[in-house]
Design a protein that fits this description.
The complex is a heterodimer of chains A (110) and B (232).
Chain A lengths: L4 H5 L2 H11 L2 E2 H11 L11 H10 L3 E8 L2 E8 L1 H26 L4
Antiparallel strand pairs in A: 1-3, 2-3
Chain B lengths: L5 H7 L7 H23 L4 H12 L2 H17 L2 H28 L2 E2 L10 E2 L4 H26 L6 H27 L4 H5 L12 H18 L7
Parallel strand pairs in B: 1-2
Classes of the chains: A alpha+beta (110), B mainly alpha (232).
Chain lengths: 110, 232
């Protein structure tokens, strides 16, 4: 089942940074990984992936480099040191968010 | 021959000029579409159907176009060549407003030192208050317009106030260089003599007050024009 678009919007940055922390990937590969790992729960319109990546690149969280494969130029994305620190910070925030939501939804008394 | 991706790419990248960002994004989208279509074909779809499905999966091209335009604008605003070009273009435009302000003041009767019997004249020579009025108009009109255009050109910049002030100071420097050049051509007092209180043949409104006032005026205009519209 797919997650509501509005709900998953805020997590795109974290997802992309996390996927790129494992290995350098190009756009299509990132979409595929996202779809497989989330079991199709998170999916964005595929064309909007690139503005996201370009915005992360402007923030210097990732960088890109072209590689020619089978006569076609393909652009790979790589996590930078700044991106790595941002990822650690975002993972911490996400953990706190999940715990807080868990407490609310699980009905645990405060 | 037209490729099946051409219309989609043209719609996505409409309004983005021939620039490395356009060719890079085009190549990325083309690569993405061809790989997606290939995968759909290997999953059993007919080539035409795979292409249609791939295009649909990319999303609404008009929405994507807005996203790409915004990214392009953000990148361009950080390009020093573009910033210099815009500063120079807007300083030239301010020069036109400067001439307009001078023409307006001349029409209102302001002269350097001449008096004509057949019309109302306000010679500046010997009347410091008229020099101040003249200086205020030739500063406020072109520099306010300059700030307005700078605000429009850099509206998406994360440091709007800084960019407006920097642009105004660039125009301020160009104006002063222009006036010094004119002074030199006319063999008038040097800038130091003018700032020390001497009369300036090329620009009688140029005195120490104008020099300092217009400098700080650039900061004031930069601050005023960077206030968000809702607060202004």
């Amino acid at each position: 089942m797919r997650v509501d678009k509005e709900l998953s919007k805020g997590s795109h940055e974290l997802i992309l940074l996390k996927l790129l922390s494992r290995k350098d990937m190009y756009g299509y590969q990132l979409i595929q990984e996202m779809t497989i790992l989330s079991e199709n729960a998170f999916s964005m319109s595929q064309g909007s992936l690139y503005p996201f990546l370009h915005a992360l690149e402007e923030k210097k969280l990732i960088e890109s480099y072209p590689i020619t494969e089978n006569g076609r130029e393909r652009r790979y994305y790589h996590l930078t040191a700044a991106g790595s620190s941002a990822l650690t910070e975002k993972e911490g925030q996400w953990e706190r968010y999940v715990k807080a939501m868990g407490r609310i939804l699980g009905g645990e008394p405060t | 021959m037209k490729k099946w991706t051409d219309d989609f790419l043209a719609q996505c990248l409409e309004g983005i000029p021939n620039d490395p960002y356009r060719s890079r994004t085009k190549a990325e989208l083309e690569d993405h579409l061809s790989e997606l279509a290939r995968e759909l074909q290997s999953a059993g779809h007919a080539p035409g159907e795979a292409q249609t499905l791939a295009l649909n999966a990319m999303g609404d091209p008009l929405r994507l176009n807005r996203m790409y335009q915004e990214r392009f604008a953000q990148r361009r605003l950080k390009d020093p060549r573009y910033v210099c070009k815009e500063f120079f273009r807007l300083a030239l435009l301010a020069g036109i407003y400067y001439l307009f302000a001078m023409s307006l003041l001349s029409w209102l009767g302001f002269t350097y030192d001449a008096e004509f019997p057949d019309r109302i004249c306000h010679p500046m020579y010997g009347h410091p208050e008229r020099q101040y009025i003249y200086g205020a108009v030739v500063f406020l009109l072109p520099f306010s317009m300059n700030a307005f255009h700078l605000r429009r050109a850099f509206r998406l910049h994360s440091h709007l106030g800084f960019m407006i002030t920097a642009g105004l100071l660039f125009t301020w420097s160009c104006e002063k260089l222009g006036l010094i050049f004119l002074n030199t051509m006319l063999g008038s007092n040097s800038l130091m003599e003018v700032l020390a209180g001497g009369w300036c043949d090329a620009s009688p409104w140029l005195n120490l007050s104008y020099f300092i006032g217009s400098f700080f005026g650039c900061f004031a205009l930069g601050f005023l024009f960077s206030i968000p519209k809702s607060k202004a």
